[in-house]
Structure formats: C-alpha cells, structure tokens
Amino acid sequence: MKGKFITFEGCEGSGKSTHVALFKEYLDRNGIDYIFLREPGGVSISEKIRSIILDVENKEMCDRAEALLYAAARAQLITEKIIPALNEGKLVVVDRYIDSSFAYQGYARGLGIDFIEKINSYAIDSCMPDKTVFLDISPKVAFERKGGADKDDRLELSGIEFHERVYEGYKKLVEKYPERFISIDPTGTKAETHAKIIESIKDILG
Ligand code: TYD
After folding, report:
1. Residue range 17-30: average pLDDT?
2. Which of 9, 52, 78, 104 to mutate to test the pocket of ligand 1 (most atoms within 8 A of CB)?
3. 66 with 109: CB under 8 angstroms?
4. How many CB atoms lie within 10 A of CB 204?
5. % the chain with pLDDT above 90
6. Closest Cα to residue 167, out of 9, 6, 50?
7. Which of 56, 100, 113, 166 to mutate for ligand 1's pocket (most ligand atoms within 8 Å of CB)?
8. What is the number of the ligand 1 atom nearest to the C-alpha of 95?
9. Atom of ligand 1 nearest to the CA of 101
10. Probe ligand 1: pick from 54, 96, 154, max atoms within 8 Å of CB?
C-alpha cells in the first residue's frame, strides 16, 4: 500500500476532537490530499452500527457483542474507504481505530487484549496505522483542568473509574508499540499541542 495511515486516540476530555480538527485545517492549508474518517462510523453501514452501539437504550448489550460490533464497523470502513485510499497513495486520517477497542473493550471492560486482537485480525486484515497520535492526559486530570463539568458530562454518566481504566489501557499500548505511538502531552496551550503534533508526524506527511 502506498498511502500513509494516521490515527488519533485519547480518553474523553483529552482534547482529541479539537486537535483532530486543527490537524485537518493544517492539511487543508498545506494542500495535502487526505481522507478523514471517524470510528465507529465513516460509511453508511458503519454509521448504522455506531447508532446501535452508542444507543443508551441498548443497556442489555453484552461486552462481547459490543466489541464485535466495533470490529464489524471497522471491517466495513476498511473495505469501503481505508484500503482503497491507501492503494491510491492517499493520506488516511482516522479519529479512533483498533487501539480504542484495545483500551475500552480489551482493557477497561476486561475482555482482554487477546480477544480484541483475535476478532480484529478478521476485521482489519493487518491494516495497521503507520503512526498513532495519543493525547496523553488522564480523564481525572482533564476533568479537573476544566474545573469539573455539568451533570450531562459523559464522564459523570459512565463513571470516572471506567475512563481511568481506559487511560491505563492506552498507557500499556504505548509501552507495547513504542514505534507506532506518538504520545503528546496536551496540557500546554492549544497552539503548543498542535505544534507538537505536527512536529512529530511531519516526516511521514512528506
Ligand atoms: P464519540 O462520540 O465519537 O466520542 P469521541 O469524541 O470521544 O471519540 O464516541 C465514540 C465512543 O466509542 C467513545 O466513547 C469511545 C468508544 N469506542 C470504543 O469503546 N471502542 C472502539 O473500538 C471505538 C472505535 C470507539
């Protein structure tokens, strides 16, 4: 495959959405051809799967079904968009990918890394990112930095302990895949963090 593949990962409140948006603006400004996708979703079938997974009414969904649905949404996205774009030599940028499954389902939900690896080996067909930008801030610290949040905040809804486990999961992944992961400390200003991200992946942008 000729193109490059970059993913963004981070916990809730890490500023991932902001930095993904700034990164896209940077690519636009510099005339770099890319496609941007988000997970779960990105194509019609995967967006439908997304609405099943994220539907708060689906309380009875078991953890394995959830993990398999994420993998199914990923398989469809890869087949329809990611592989064709990489084959055309395009830069592919994805907001969340397999590492979210490792951290959320494998680690925080306790399904285990092996289980996630196994089901995703069917889904991704060895299509791994060249680089993964991880915004390295714990949900607790992010939450405190914001001065707490209102009662609708998702951290309040699903419990800070779960998100702390997600963070621990990410830290283990960074240790396991040091070549692929780029950990960025997002506690400076937005502009500083953005500059760090660009600096760290400039090489692969060509
Ligand atoms: P989204 O609203 O896109 O959140 P964010 O802005 O934080 O990316 O919701 C995606 C949610 O799906 C998020 O809570 C993380 C979760 N998720 C998993 O648990 N496993 C996965 O494999 C993926 C891709 C996402």
Report:
1. 97
2. 104
3. yes
4. 12
5. 86
6. 9
7. 100
8. 8
9. 22
10. 96
Question: What's the whole-number mean pLDDT along residues 142-159?
Answer: 67
> What are the C-alpha distances in Å from 167 to residues 11, 115, 121, 122?
6, 19, 23, 26
DSSP string, 110-134: ---HHHHHHHHHHHHTT---SEEEE
Residue with CA at minimum distance from ligand 1 atom 7: 12
Confidence at 6, pLDDT banded by 50, 70, 90: very high
Instruction: Supply the pTM of this predicted model.
Output: 0.95
Question: Which domains are seen in the chain, by residue range?
Answer: 4-205 (3.40.50.300)
- Rounded to an integer, the average pLDDT of 46-51 is 97
Question: Does position 158 have pLDDT exceeding 80, yes or no?
Answer: no
| Interval between CA 74 and ligand 1 midpoint (Å) | 12
pLDDT at residue 99 above 90? yes
Q: How far is the CA of 66 from the centre of ligand 1 (A)?
A: 12
pLDDT confidence tier of residue 152, bands split at 50, 70 and 90:
low
Distance CA 118, CA 67 (A): 11
pLDDT for residue 20: 98
Name all residues whose Cβ lies below 6 A of ligand 1. 12, 17, 39-40, 70, 96, 100-101, 104-105
Two structure tokens written together for 46: 């995967």
